[in-house]
Specification:
Blueprint lengths: L1 E8 L6 H15 L3 E8 L4 H8 L8 E7 L3 H6 L1 H10 L5 E5 L4 H13 L3 E4 L6 H5 L2 H17 L3 E4 L2 H7 L8 E3 L17 H5 L8 E5 L8 H14 L4 E5 L6 H10 L6 E5 L3 H10 L2 E4 L8 H8 L4 E4 L6 H4 L3 E4 L3 H12 L2 H18 L2 H17 L2
Parallel strand pairs: 1-2, 1-4, 2-3, 4-5, 5-6, 6-7, 8-9, 8-11, 9-10, 11-12, 12-13
Length: about 400
């Protein structure tokens, strides 16, 4: 099968979707399929994307098509993208679009329709009720201007979790939905860093225990709840530190102000984005991972924490109920007191914490590896092509 993935950017600084697309494409290629990926690549991100791409297993099997974008006008007209996509699309069997609100994706759908090539849309949580309330009027207008048509004409919608599938039901957006989660390449975790590697690289931690947040520093990610929860934990755990890793996406200033008001500046370490061995070291050294997000499709950071045998504290809005089902951590309401209680429960019982970490690793190995996920995606494509 010849498959084309289309995404706005593969820049790892853009969060989860680039990490998902690169790995899903590589895993599909490893199954013997011909895989192409088309995306924009601005000059500022080219080096970062190239370095990141090389870290992914089987990346050499994927053909990447980078569309140079040097103007804001291109992001509205997608004219350069249309030229490249018009060349690529007629020769493929199926197209997988990642995201919604971007002209490159709507253009790809239109070209696919004209060429009578089926396409799939993966919203990556962008149709979640919380997401739809953000810039609501703009999105309503966009739906009227062609994005609703793009969704309606898709062979199916690729949803990441059961909640996302069920939440789309009353919205009457599409009657065909395939649940295909994200995954982990276990080989990316090898060799696993030692538990003290991150402490050794960050002497300011002084061997003290820390809670890890690793994601974009965006309002959606719940850093305000995290700051308040950590302030509660700090009163009963005098040595506890908080490590915040990820690129600033608008929420860092407010978070730092909250931490300063609580008088906790010396106990909070903002370390910027982490990739590769540094990221794994951060997971391995943490006492627990915390993501009190307002909305997630399928968080790669949660999956990575579980794979690194770290108990997690996540919000219900992360839509990852398997964590509670296998006792790999706590799934809580978006409430600082509840988040704090969950963190404290992990800290006070090291034996139980270790069992949670082991349960998380088993969960990933049994259900959420990229080879398994890639096979599910191929089966979904085959169903779509068979019913076309």
């Amino acid at each position: 099968m010849k498959i084309l993935h289309v995404i706005t950017t593969l820049d790892p600084a853009a969060g989860g979707p680039p990490a998902v697309v690169t790995r899903l494409a590589a895993a599909q290629a490893a199954l013997g399929h011909e895989i192409h990926v088309a995306s924009y690549e601005g000059p500022s991100a080219a080096e970062r994307i190239a370095a990141y791409w090389k870290t992914i297993p089987h990346h050499e099997l994927v053909c990447s098509h980078r569309i140079t974008s040097n103007s804001r006008l291109e992001r509205f007209t997608a004219s350069a993208a249309k030229r490249e996509l018009s060349r690529l699309i007629p020769s493929v069997n199926i197209i997988h679009l990642h995201g919604i609100w971007d002209p490159i994706l709507k253009s790809a759908a239109g070209i696919a329709d004209s060429a009578r090539i089926p396409y799939v849309v993966a919203p990556h949580g962008m149709l979640d009720p919380w997401s739809m309330r953000q810039r609501r009027l703009k999105k309503q207008i966009a739906l009227l201007l062609g994005y609703r048509h793009m969704l309606d004409r898709a062979a199916f919608l690729h949803v990441l979790n059961a909640d996302e599938r069920d939440l789309l039901e009353p919205r009457d957006l599409h009657d065909r939905r395939h649940l295909i989660p994200n995954g982990i390449f276990l080989e990316e975790l090898e060799p696993m860093p030692s538990r003290d590697a991150f402490h050794n690289a960050h002497p300011a931690l002084n061997t003290k225990p820390y809670v890890l947040f690793l994601s974009r520093l965006h309002y959606k990610k719940g850093l305000d709840y995290l700051a308040d929860a950590f302030a509660i934990c700090a009163t009963s755990h005098a040595d506890l530190q908080l490590v915040v890793a990820g690129p600033d996406d608008g929420a860092q200033a407010d978070f730092q102000a909250r931490i300063a008001r609580a008088g906790l500046n010396s106990r909070v370490h903002i370390v910027g984005p982490l990739y590769g061995p540094q990221k794994l070291a951060a997971f391995r050294g943490a006492s627990c991972f915390c993501l009190p997000s307002r909305q997630e499709g399928f968080s790669m950071a949660i999956a990575e924490a579980l794979a690194c045998e770290i108990p997690v504290v996540i919000s219900m809005d992360c839509h990852f109920p398997e964590v509670a089902e296998v006792n790999a951590g706590f799934v809580v309401k978006l409430d600082a007191q509840e988040i704090a209680r969950a963190i404290q429960s992990i800290l006070k019982d090291p034996a139980r914490s270790k069992e949670m970490g082991q349960a998380g690793r088993q969960l990933i190995e049994s259900r959420f590896t990229w080879p398994r996920v890639a096979q599910r995606s191929i089966e979904a494509y085959e169903q779509a092509l068979g019913s076309d």
